[in-house]
Design a protein that fits this description.
The protein is mostly helical and 91 residues long. It has five helices and no strands. The chain has one domain. α1 runs antiparallel to α5 and α2 runs antiparallel to α4. The protein is globular, with a radius of gyration of 13 Å.
Length: 91
Amino acid sequence: MSTVTQLDTIASGIAALQGGGGSVATLSTAARASTELLGALPPRYGEVLLNLLDRLESSALFSEESCSFSQKDLLDNLQVWVDKARGQLVS
């Protein structure tokens, strides 16, 4: 799978969750399996992505009120990550 395809898969997972569908597990699995994409980006991108995924997975275990991580904010941050990663791939 190409780097762009892997990035598009992550973006689709984020959009699905923001739209009320999809699952955190599906997004997380796809993102963690995006080794070609992560290899094409600076190492810091991998660290940030894994950190965001860890927090997103934790937020999925609790209701919104009882978790210190806002799932909406985490998804917004993941979208920013996707946008910046896309910019890195283009440059």
